[in-house]
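Async update (no meeting this week)

Hi team, since we skipped the sync, here's where things stand on the single-chain job. The sequence we agreed to prioritize is pasted below, unchanged from the tracker. I ran it this morning and attached the output directly underneath so nobody has to dig for it. Comments welcome in thread, and please keep replies under the output.
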Amino acid sequence: MEFETLVQSRRSVRGFRNEPVPRAVIEAIIDTAKRAPSSMNTQPWHVHVLTGSPLEQLRRRNMEEMVAGAKVKRDIVSHGEYQGVHRTRQVDVAKKLFGAMGIARDDKPMRQDWVLRGFRQFDAPVSLVLTYDRVLDPGAVCHFDLGALCYGIVLAAWDRGLGSVINGQGIMRSDIVREVANIPEEEVIMTCVAMGYPDDNFAANAVRSDREGNDDFVRYVGFAE
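Output:
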């Protein structure tokens, strides 16, 4: 698939078929994605791929802790609640998703169930936990590198018929993730990617978030008029 077509067609998938993903397919995805740009070729990333009973344990414990009111315990610093235009964009896509799923504004049980799906990593059959070497903190360069790898994984997966969603809710309790996946303390847990074959009958999978027009965020300097 041509790159432009690949990027334009890709969307976040929030409903997956109950079908295992072969390890060989995941290995091929990572083999492609690892060619992502890396500052001075430092390659600060690590990928921990979970499926089966370890993933079930992770999602169950993560969900139970959050439902019980446990505090978020992530390795990385959170920005807190979004405000202003960032909050507006967050709400806009939520309205689209709830509309597609038929979840009314006052339907608290269904809204809560949607939140729990995020904590369960949307019941995807595979989760890729992305980490970087702690020795490189503080600094944004390694975060940038890991983001490039993450997007490479998402695109390479889509090219092979797999959907994914970059899912911070799935690692709200990084201590649980570290324990279940046996991730060493020398690595910082940044995010995870829930992955699997898309369920075409899941209405939210058809939702695409809006993007601002280029004039709203792009400046051209030194170009002839």
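Quick observations from my side:
The chain is about 40% helix and 15% strand.
The mean pLDDT is 90.
Reply here if anything looks off.
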